[in-house]
Amino acid sequence: MSLEEPDDPLATPEQVGVSEGEVDYDALADLLGDTVVGRESHVNAEGFVVRPDEVQDALFALRNEAGFDHCSCVTAQEYDDRYESIYHLKKYDDPTQEVSVVVPTPKDDPVSQTAEPVYRTADWHEREAYDLVGIDYEGHPDMRRILLPETWQGHPLSQDFSGEEPQVVTLREHANPLQEDHRGEDDTDTMFLNIGPHHPATHGVLHIETVLDGEQVADLDPDIGYLHRCEEQMCQQGTYRHQIMPYPDRWDYISAGILNEWAYARAAEDMADIEVPEYAQVVRTMSAELCRIASHMLALATFALDIYGDFTAIFMYAIRDREVVQDILEDLTGQRLMFNYLRLGGVAWDLPEPREEFFEKIRDFLDELPERLGEYHDMITSNEILQMRTVDTGVLPPEEAKSYGATGPVARGSGIDYDLRRDDPYGYYPELDWDVVTEDGCDNFARLLCRMREVEQSARIIEQCVDLLEDWPEDEREIQSNVPRTLRPDPDTEIYRAVEGAKGELGIYMRSDGTDKPARFKIRSPCFSNLQTLPVMSEGEYIPDMIASLGSLDIVLGEVDR
User: What is the pLDDT of residues 388-439, one digit of tens each?
Assistant: First the structure.
């Protein structure tokens, strides 16, 4: 089978082997034909094992003929006898329809065909796989390290890596890549400009290599990795039951702690078949939406600061409202940032006493929120300067957003109606009345509006949860199910599960080896995939527009680099 890429890279003229709510994996096997050499059963989906030199044929078939247009994650790992890449595929229209493409490569020649021509998001995911595990992807447009320096020796997640290996290189390796200033043969006026990594508008330690043609951005390359902490390896060294849960708070460390914890909890609970009591699901849902509001308030504050430098009013107003949310979360969890509140099977403890005062504090915040949002719209969305800087700048077409795996407000700001809380239900969300917010502008302004309107929806969810919790019978307030002290899933149990984080799809892949610690722990960061869209949004525009586009992505480098 050999498939040429069509003019419309996301065209799906005929859906093969799928129907509403289910996947016919036998029909998909027929579609893939001789590219398939084996099948695996993962907890979330069937996996098709394909030859390393036929990856693109398999992926083009699944995307174009079966409608799997979302490559949500790429996992790389090393076994005793092989290396392996897993492409976790979903559909933007129905993320419950999943399939995995498993690509084994021999230990002595870990080379696999790149998936980048099929899914643009595979560019960074495969570079990370090469950097940390050591798999090479043939035909990749930029096969170099992404998180670690180019001079790094070895691959940290490979079995033979030694942490004591000296990372000493000659001064020659650190030479200025530009050497001396020079003009090209065609005497162009292009100029290379470094933005960051130490600049407040980069929202963290992000280095943006920019080429300017006059005042316009001709080329742009985000350089990440300055904050890499190898969180995946640390989780692989912790036990499922107790030692992993404190880490997720530290990925998106400024706002989304409980949302991060829920991503791990959902994966581990489904992997070990753990039920969560209904009462605990309501508490989780309420606390997660409080975290979403806190995250969006900070995004709003910093975006206004990026756009027209308003620190006194808008930034401090948003931080004021965020502080109220953090006070509520501190009452609930005991901490303001690193909550460590969720437990496998439920939550750590019940709501604070007296419950009436806790509920009153939440209701006071919710009662004041509409007026607060009205103030933001008066000062922000109707501001002429902000409109000039954001309307029709940073345009991200829907087809580009899908190809890069964008999710969250970045995707919904491009009109993509995709939200895992509704489309892949978990927690108590299916029982509540709320709406998914989308905007069709595809620009910086649309992404801003998405977050502001999502705050309103989060408030609706929180209010309904408070109503439920107030009336919940005292003798039925079960905060945690009976979970074994030590969890040991069956060997080679594999799962990929995701939740709707504040910034998009936050997913976890885990593989068990029969012990109480995961053999492989992979984090699918929404910020990682969303940041890849920056060149699409910025090329051909001006530097101030690029700064606005970066701010509209609402990235946190601790989650990008992990």
Answer: 888 989 999 999 999 999 999 999 999 999 999 999 999 999 999 999 999 9
**What is d(CA 199, CA 3) in angstroms, rounded to the nearest whole number?**
45
Q: Is residue 127 part of a domain?
A: yes
Q: Are residues 235 and 134 in the same domain?
A: no
β-strands 82-90, 99-106 pairing: antiparallel
Is the pLDDT at 466 greater than 90, yes or no? yes
> What angle, 0 to 180 degrees and rounded to 10, lies between the N-to-C axes of helices 278-308 and 316-333?
160
Contact between 450 and 412 (Cβ < 8 Å): yes
pLDDT digits (tens, 9 = 90+) for 279-323: 999 999 999 999 999 999 998 888 888 888 777 778 888 889 999
Encoded tokens for 528: 């990682």
> DSSP for 197-248?
SS-GGGTSS-EEEEEEETTEEEEEEEE--TT---HHHHHHTS-TTTTSTTTG
Q: Residue 454: inside a domain, yes or no? A: yes
Closest C-alpha to 178, from 197, 193, 159:
193
* Length in residues, the chain: 562
Q: Is 210 inside a domain boundary?
A: no
Any idea what the CATH number is for the domain that residue 81 is in?
Answer: 3.30.460.80
| Secondary structure in 3-state letters for 12-70 | CCCCCCEECCEECHHHHHHHHHHHEEEEEECCCCEEEEECCCCHHHHHHHHHHCCCCCE
Q: How many domains does the chain have?
A: 2
Do residues 490 and 514 touch, judged by C-beta distance below 8 A?
A: yes
Per 3-state DSSP, what percentage of the chain is helix, strand, and coil (rounded to 5)? 40, 15, 40
Q: How confident is residue 190, by pLDDT bands cut at 50, 70 and 90?
A: confident
| Domain range for 71 | 25-138
**Contact criterion met (CB below 8 Å) for 113 and 60:** no
Dihedral sign from CA coordinates of 401, 419, 204, 546:
positive
Say if 193 falls within a structural domain.
no
Last residue of a domain, one of 89, 105, 138: 138
End-to-end alpha-carbon separation of the chain, Å?
Answer: 38
Distances (CA, A) of 444 to 71, 92, 119, 385, 392: 24, 22, 24, 13, 7
